[in-house]
Amino acid sequence: MKNRYEGGDLVVESLINLGVKQVFSVSGGPLNSIYHAAASNKLPIVHTRHEAAAGFMAEAVSRMTGTPGVAMVTLGPAVTNSVTTAFMAQMAGSPLLIIGGQGNTRDFDRGAEMQAKHVRIMTPVTKFAARVLHTERIPEYIEMAWRHMWAGRPGPVFLEIPIDVLSALAEQQAPATGVVTRSANLSPETAREIETALAKARRPILVIGDEARWEMTSGLDPADLRQVIERHGLPFTSLRHARGLVDECHELCLGPACVFAHKSLQQALKEADLVILLGHHMEADLDFGASVGEETVVVQCYPDVEYLGRNRRSDIATLAGVKPVIELLLGLAPLEIDRAWVKGAATAWRADWAGQAGDDATELPLHPVAVIDAVINAMPAETVYVSGGGNVDFWTDGRIQVRAPNCYIKGGQGGTLGAEVPYGIGARAADPERPVVILVGDGGFAFHGVELDTAERYGRPVIVVVMDDQGWGCIAVPQQREYGSSFEADLPQRDWPAFARSLGGFGARAETVAEIGEAMAAALGSGKPAIVHVPVRRVLSPFMNVVGF
Predict the structure, then answer these.
(1) What are the DSSP E strand ranges found in 502-548?
(2) Superfamily of domain 4-171
(3) Burial, 488: exposed, middle or buried (Cβ in 10 Å; 0-12, 13-18, 19+)?
(4) CA distances from 466 to 399, 473, 541, 549 (A)
(5) Superfamily of domain 188-352
(6) For a 10 Å CB count at each end of the chain, is N or C smaller?
(7) What is the pLDDT of residues 72-97, one digit of tens each?
């Protein structure tokens, strides 16, 4: 056993010790020590076509597994390409470690090619950013970053490690451990306050948030959430990372928590006399708290004090975790809830959902909802779906009923188009046995569509459904509405199936519901990365209509 380690060895052994199973990167010389150590220690590295894509894939792994994803990039433009990745993870509240290379320390501040002030660049979009200057301190810094990443609301962190620090030898060091326990205890006083509020409530709503998903790493069982809901007859809605922790086809579900996409949910929140924010805060999907009635009592549990009462006052606020609140609810006698109101709210949501596409959904070109439904009907139940931040993505977000944990990733919390493809590849890398379907518009697809090459090289056969409205639909429709015509918003229809085939994948075009079913079956059976190209109607999603696009 060797007793002197290169810096790259310390990086790799620390990551393995923290539970990291794979790393995403774009090849860069300053990282060679890490690459060599990874090969020796059998830590797989997926080399992507763009640094942002590497980060998106890593974040998808984080969302799917609960173990933070790791992206490694070289210096200069590689780090600046990662700014968007960090911003997306910051907006989504996802744990993510980005390791950036750097030139020799002797060349700092001398104007060396590609050297930039990486830490200064990454600080605004991360929870922690630091430069490591001593090889023996690499495990210490990785552990520090890991703890910052998990503390309170999760988010991205960044470490810069210069090439000479990575290649230098150090005495054997213990690798990082970075164990972080989530789910802080609930004080007896706060427990009594919550119990009193629940006893008075007749129209309560449970909002299941991101923290519920992250606490699965600390022993939270989604079955306990379902048990609470059914024990008390609690209507519920779920946000982002938490979608699918309780089946959204459940009779007490009020739909996904995007009040702009579903007016029925907005109405229910206005009428509720109690809203329990279970591991979340009043963010955009809840209209920054405006969706909740002025007289509604708000109970909020969230691990980050910065977000307690943010945007809207919380009547009862606690830093306690989700698990202690669930345990409290499980121990209470069944609540006295207005069952007729609950049934009415759930029925309204189903009517809202059923009427999304109108009566002409299957007229050609197809309505986006008809495409989404046809895709879902063609795929097995265990499929993972990925959407993003464009118009068709917002249709997808409000249409898919997520039935189990880790079955849906919305990659557009920061508004970045094109992240869908790398998110999908990352999801398939995290769970190679489950099919992954990526729903994306033609505009967004072109950002990172070339990552299908990465999918082919590493045997990750994702299916990309390109919903093609021949332009930037979310821009063109408002232009048409306001000015009578669209401008700088149209795109030519490309032969995307041919593009897929050029990268060693499968490609098919489908125009009708029946053809979509056939194409999806063929794509799934091909065992290759695939594109199913579907022309769609330009119809603005309810979300886009509300937010003013």
Answers:
(1) 506-509, 530-535
(2) Thiamin diphosphate (ThDP)-binding fold, Pyr/PP domains (3.40.50.970)
(3) exposed
(4) 17, 13, 17, 22
(5) TPP-binding domain (3.40.50.1220)
(6) N
(7) 999 999 999 999 999 999 999 999 99
